[in-house]
Design goal:
The chain is mostly beta strands and 65 residues long. The termini are far apart. It is built from no helices and four strands. Strand 2 and strand 3 form a beta hairpin. 0% of the residues lie in helices and 46% in strands. Strands 3-2-1-4 form a four-stranded mixed β-sheet, with no helix packed on it. The protein is globular and about 45 Å long.
């Protein structure tokens, strides 16, 4: 069963592209785009109220002085 997310989804590419849909299955992103693939049409959609950044991000940062 896939989890579908709809809203502002920021990719991790070099342009930080913005997409509308993300599908994930078994903790893996299987689709990312501006339209939802037909195979996920019957899946429930989770609406995103802010933005989603699908990435591993190290939030422990030391700033240089």
């Amino acid at each position: 069963m896939a989890n579908i997310y709809h809203g502002d989804i920021i990719s991790c590419d070099e342009k930080n592209s913005l997409y509308r849909y993300l599908a994930e299955e078994d903790s893996k992103i299987v689709s990312l785009g501006d339209t939802l693939p037909e195979k996920y049409a019957k899946a429930g959609v989770n609406e995103i109220s802010d933005a989603l950044l699908p990435a591993f991000v190290d939030t422990h940062v030391h700033f240089a002085r």
